[in-house]
Design a protein that fits this description.
This protein is α/β, with parallel strands linked by helices. Helices cover 18% and strands 31% of the residues. Strand 4 and strand 5 form a beta hairpin. The radius of gyration is 22 Å and the shape is globular. The chain starts with 5 loop residues before the first strand and ends with a strand. Bound molecules: S-adenosylmethionine.
Length: 366
């Protein structure tokens, strides 16, 4: 069995997963919930050939930027990454990581749009359960442990109330169907002012929605300000969900494409955009139009859109808004940028307290 070993660390920087990076030993070590300059002792949790993963045991030299987290679960919960420092520092780490990823591409300076608040924003919360061990909470992928979070600070009030109710007297156990496997997941979500709970259903049961209402409005406005100048525009919205990013725009024609859309009538259209016939099917859907749309909006899941260049070559839009929740796949997809110029990059923080954020890149055909 793997022996847990202690090692000294000194944090040099924060990586894109919000972890401190130490090079104090022969292997690079990733240690969550640390800050640059911090020195201490960590315990190794897992090792690979040239890197290892560890957790803090003791910090002998804390950074000046360290603060006491507001959330009592922060040390044990894997879902928030930055509550041990201020929100300004969190945004700084996010920006540094985005700048590092974009260093390969010529681009204008990145505009940062911070969240209107750091807590009480999530309108849906996904929790893992284990009925054998009577545990409900956030799953740590590194050790498969579930951290209970009855006092979690990030959900909106209505979701939080439901969270409290579920934890009270293990009420959540009553929600798990008898034929469910002992381990699974449960989602609390607010839709149209009503609280719902789904068990072992795909996440975002009932269709995808952005988790932070006010910041979603900011995201919509950003796209509107950039793309809404022409009234008679034809546009295509890929990975459109319920059309969230294009509903407020002026257009003469619109096609919204999403595999899991709940909307069944035009302009909504269900296509597997990752399927080998994705481009062909969208082309066919556009075939009754004289021109292909001048505007392309896309907002894929974290895996991005590997054949983005083929989409650009096929549709040849004048303007593009690529909205991404994973900057690694975004940068991969943007290269090479032969026929397009980056007109703007915006870091929009829809997921404060965590390492996640949205990046919006506006492209214009040369
Ligand atoms: C990040 S969400 C964006 C949704 C929407 N733009 C919004 O702002 O609410 C990604 C969307 O991709 C859709 N999706 C996932 N896999 C897909 C696939 N293979 N083909 C088409 N759409 C897919 C999901 O249903 C989801 O609506």
């Amino acid at each position: 069995m793997h022996q847990k070993r202690n090692l000294p660390f000194k944090i040099e920087n924060i990586d894109s997963l919000g972890q401190g990076v130490s090079k104090a030993t022969d292997k690079i070590t990733f240690i969550p919930k640390t800050l640059p300059g911090e020195i201490g002792v960590a315990r190794i949790l897992a090792q690979k050939k040239s890197v290892q993963f560890a957790e803090v045991i003791q910090i002998s030299q804390p950074a000046a930027e360290r603060i006491t987290p507001d959330c009592i679960h922060f040390n044990d919960c894997p879902s928030c990454h930055f509550l041990h420092t201020s929100y300004e520092m969190e945004l700084k780490f996010k920006l540094l990581n985005l700048e590092r990823l974009f260093s390969k591409i010529e681009h204008p300076s990145i505009n940062v749009i911070g969240a209107v608040r750091r807590n009480q924003y999530r309108n849906r919360l996904q929790l893992h359960f284990d009925t054998k061990n009577k545990k409900l909470g956030m799953l740590d992928a590194k050790n498969q442990q579930i951290a209970p979070i009855p006092q979690c600070l990030i959900p909106v009030d209505s979701v939080k109330k439901e969270l409290n109710r579920l934890y009270q007297d293990n009420n959540w156990l009553k929600m798990i169907p008898k034929d469910s496997p002992s381990q699974g997941h449960l989602e609390i979500y607010e839709r149209d002012g009503k609280i719902n709970i789904s068990v072992n259903r795909p996440y975002a049961d009932g269709g995808f929605t952005q988790v932070f209402h006010e910041m979603n409005l900011v995201l919509q406005d950003l796209i509107k300000n950039e793309l809404n100048s022409e009234q008679n525009t034809e546009l295509i919205d890929l990975f459109a969900g319920d059309g969230n990013l294009s509903n407020n725009l002026n257009y003469s024609k619109r096609l919204c494409v999403d595999y899991y859309t709940k909307q069944v009538s035009p302009p909504f259209f269900s296509v597997d955009l990752y399927g080998e016939n994705g481009i062909k099917m969208v082309r066919e859907a556009l075939s009754n139009q004289k021109n292909f749309p001048q505007i392309l909006i896309l907002d894929p899941p974290r895996s991005g859109l590997k054949n983005f260049q083929d989409w650009l070559n096929t549709l040849q839009p004048q303007k593009v808004a690529y909205v991404s929740c994973d900057p690694h796949t975004l940068v991969r997809d943007l290269l090479p940028l032969d026929s397009y110029l980056i007109k703007g990059i915006h870091l929009v923080d829809l997921f404060p307290s965590t390492f996640h954020f949205e990046t919006v890149v506006f492209l214009e055909r040369k």
